[in-house]
Design a protein that fits this description.
Blueprint: H1 2-38, H2 42-55, H3 59-71, H4 75-88, H5 93-105, H6 109-122, H7 127-139, H8 143-156, H9 161-174, E1 177-188, E2 198-209, E3 212-223, E4 226-237, E5 243-251, E6 260-270, E7 274-284, E8 291-302, E9 305-314, E10 321-331, E11 338-345, H10 359-362, E12 367-378, E13 382-397, E14 402-418
Antiparallel strand pairs: 1-2, 1-14, 2-3, 3-4, 4-5, 5-6, 6-7, 7-8, 8-9, 9-10, 10-11, 11-12, 12-13, 13-14
Length: 419
């Protein structure tokens, strides 16, 4: 009898110790999974999570696993894992928040807002979720509702710095008007233009509308000892949540500007922070045929960085000319604070300083260029922009009916007022 009792006690002790050891091992392994996940070793984190879930389902482990899938852009896998959490507990705030992020990063803003609302229905005072919803509303261009949500949050907690910073950005988006003045000075190291610098000054007014942004611009140039004016208009009509057009038209009665210019380009945002475009430009100068230039772009956001490649293809009787520009920007606190670098080979019809008498000739001129840019907003209303560029270029000289080459140093300074 004593032996039987002793054996039962030993078995009970073993089960208790074993269960405690298993719980301790599970906790330690979950901590290890979190360490892997937050240190960028997400595949290792998922392997640990699978091992834990194979023993028993744990909502925290499954939510972490779902988030690692989302961080790697594997949104379908993330949804599968996170939905399993909701089958166990339909009101699991962590899983709902993770699914809101998945929908947000997939640019499915209505779904993302729906998940946030499910959390706020149970916990209306959650500042973290209110901020999450405000960010989604801002990305969905619903800035009025985002501002109202943030203002209510700050009424209860005026010291929430993150909400204050986000509200500043949202209010900036609510500003409808922008007035810009920009001056460019080009100095040439050769005698192609009698050593006279080129000067370009433009004044433009932009307004945000429900259909997209519209811009009116007046360009003034002094080149070859001549003054000239050009009138231009741009529009960016929205086609859908991820699509918009770029439309441009300009005209001038002065020979150093195109008699007419027009542009049309379709732009689309894709998944994984990728964007692309396809379109063209038409330029018509006095004494020359109409020139059609095909262009497009491919760009991607990587963290706070943006990279873009834009080629230009100009068919012509003397052959097809191809040029390309590679751009990079590093953004800081918001889209109006950044530094940028652009390198290029060939000429671009979008470079106002390069407008020549005959674009069909200039499209085939050789050019290598580099340009760095700084943009900063201060006091929430004023934008300062400065750029420095250097190029080694060929120039078509109509007086001599031949090409020359030399270096060009370009300085640009601009100010904008938001109101």
């Amino acid at each position: 009898m004593k032996t039987f009792t002793g054996r039962r006690f030993s078995l009970l002790l073993f089960l208790l110790l074993g269960g405690g050891f298993s719980t301790m091992l599970s906790a330690q392994t979950f901590e290890q999974a979190k360490d892997y996940a937050f240190n960028g070793q997400r595949e290792k984190a998922r392997a640990v999570c699978r091992a834990i879930l194979a023993r028993d389902f744990d909502s925290d482990v499954a939510t972490l696993m779902g988030r690692t899938y989302a961080w790697d852009g594997k949104y379908d896998s993330a949804r599968v894992v996170l939905q399993k959490v909701l089958t166990q507990n339909a009101n699991n705030s962590d899983a709902l928040s993770a699914l809101a992020d998945v929908a947000y990063w997939s640019e499915n803003y209505p779904e993302a807002i729906g998940y946030c609302d499910r959390i706020l229905a149970k916990d209306p005072g959650s500042e973290t979720v209110q901020l999450q919803k405000a960010r989604i509303l801002k990305s969905a261009d619903n800035n009025d509702e985002a501002a109202q949500l943030l203002e209510k949050l700050l009424e209860k907690n005026p010291s929430n710095d993150e909400a204050l910073r986000l509200l500043d950005k949202v209010r900036l988006e609510l500003i409808k008007n922008k007035l810009t003045i920009n001056y460019t000075y080009d100095y040439f190291s050769n005698t192609a233009y009698n050593k006279d610098p080129w000067q370009l000054l433009y004044l433009q007014y932009a307004r945000k509308t429900g259909l997209g942004t519209v811009i009116a611009r007046v360009n003034y140039a002094n080149r070859f000892g001549k003054d000239a004016l050009q009138l231009e208009a741009d529009a960016y009509p929205k086609l859908s949540e991820n699509d918009y057009l770029y439309v441009n038209y300009g005209f001038s009665n002065f020979s150093i500007f195109p008699r007419q210019r027009a542009g049309l380009e379709w732009n689309r945002s894709f998944a994984h922070a990728i964007e692309g475009s396809l379109g063209g430009r038409i330029l018509h100068f006095d004494g020359s045929k109409r020139v059609i230039i095909y262009t497009g772009s491919i760009g991607k956001y990587v963290g706070n960085y943006w990279f873009s490649l834009r080629p230009f293809v100009t068919p012509g009787g003397g052959g097809t000319s191809v040029s390309a520009y590679l751009s990079a920007r590093r953004y800081f606190s918001d889209p109006e604070n950044y530094i940028g670098l652009r390198v290029g080979a060939g000429t671009s019809p979008d470079e106002r300083r390069l407008l020549l008498f005959d674009q069909s000739q200039s499209a085939r001129l050789k050019s290598l260029s580099a340009r760095t840019e700084y943009n900063h907003i201060f006091n929430g209303r004023w934008i300062f922009n400065a750029a420095v560029g250097f190029a080694n270029e060929e120039y078509w000289v109509p007086q001599d009916d031949r090409m020359r080459s030399g270096n060009d140093l370009s300085l640009q300074l601009g100010f904008a007022w938001l109101f």
